[in-house]
Design brief:
- The protein contains 9 helices and 12 strands.
- It is of the alpha/beta class.
- A hairpin with a 5-residue loop joins strand 3 and strand 4.
Length: about 300
């Protein structure tokens, strides 16, 4: 039986003809397979998304899952202290959340989508504390777009202000991910959406009309609510209400909310459709119970 691996590329010369070359012993991650390149002789440990991490992948993904299920970083730290000999601080857990949310979202944002003809867009207000030694609070917004058929969150962004420029950027991202599938975009009566929605999806000269119809629902006039996206917002508020406002930069707050998007689309089973939204909207197959770990591996392989 050969010991040569054709799937593990060498990080030095990028050749794929490598061979197993012993094990690397670590304090908290056990034994890790080491490889040697048959071309340049370079010895290396492949990057599986946890390169140079001092904690096991199962422990890190456990923390991610607990965090997005509503457990605070300090409560997670207490849990680790009770069940794992080598503890991690709540600051490390926060860094893991930010790091891996960014890593996974870079992969999931590139997935092709098969969705319905109607999407809904809306925003939620959030407060962000400006500094540890100050009492200033910045009024920020979380903007998102959801597909009504699959309940898949197509795009989202945590921004400082809900300006037309921010809305346009989000709409263009949704257009890039959905192509020509969308025919109707429903929003509330917020004036910033005016003209931006239709123009973002483009004009069709052949039929003499915009590719997407902008449908506005004014709840104050008794026109009802955009139920799918409002239900999504209730789910997000249920988790984020314990934050009591975000700390740090807009970029870190956006990373945390991107993780919330991942949790909603790929981890949490939606009650209305009886499965995770990704199962209807993408061709992705997640075969294990630790979906966080699978997503991290897929993000590294891309």
């Amino acid at each position: 039986m050969t010991n040569v691996s054709k799937d593990i590329p060498c990080p030095h010369c990028h050749k794929t003809k490598t061979t197993k070359d012993g094990l690397r012993k670590t304090q908290n991650r056990g034994l890790i397979q080491r490889y040697r390149c048959k071309g340049c002789g370079h010895r290396f440990v492949p990057d599986d998304g946890f390169y140079r991490m001092r904690n096991a992948p199962q422990k890190i993904t456990l923390c991610l899952d607990l965090f997005y299920r509503g457990v605070s970083t300090r409560k997670i730290q207490e849990h680790l202290q009770a069940f794992y000999p080598h503890n991690s601080s709540h600051k490390s857990i926060y860094k893991w959340v930010v790091k891996y949310s960014r890593m996974i979202s870079a992969f999931t944002d590139s997935l092709g989508l098969q969705i319905g003809q109607e999407i809904q867009a809306d925003e939620m207000e959030y407060h962000r504390r400006l500094g540890r030694n100050t009492h200033g609070i910045d009024r920020n917004w979380f903007m998102d777009i959801i597909d009504c058929k699959t309940r898949f969150m197509v795009a989202s962004e945590y921004v400082q202000s809900r300006s037309q420029e921010e809305i346009k950027r989000l709409m263009l991202r949704a257009r890039c991910k959905t192509g020509v599938q969308v025919k109707v975009c429903t929003t509330d009566a917020f004036m910033a959406y005016e003209n931006i929605v239709e123009k973002s999806f483009g004009y069709n000269n052949r039929i003499g009309a915009y590719n997407v119809k902008h449908k506005k629902v004014n709840a104050s006039r008794g026109e009802g609510f955009n139920c799918p996206i409002e239900r999504l917002h209730n789910t997000i508020r249920q988790r984020t209400k314990t934050f009591r406002g975000f700390h740090g930069s807009v970029a870190s707050a956006n990373a945390i909310m991107k993780g919330m998007e991942i949790y909603y689309n790929f981890i949490r089973k939606h009650q209305a459709i009886g499965k995770c939204p990704y199962e209807l909207a993408t061709s992705l197959k997640l075969e294990t119970s630790n979906k966080w770990l699978e997503l991290i591996w897929m993000a590294v392989m891309v």
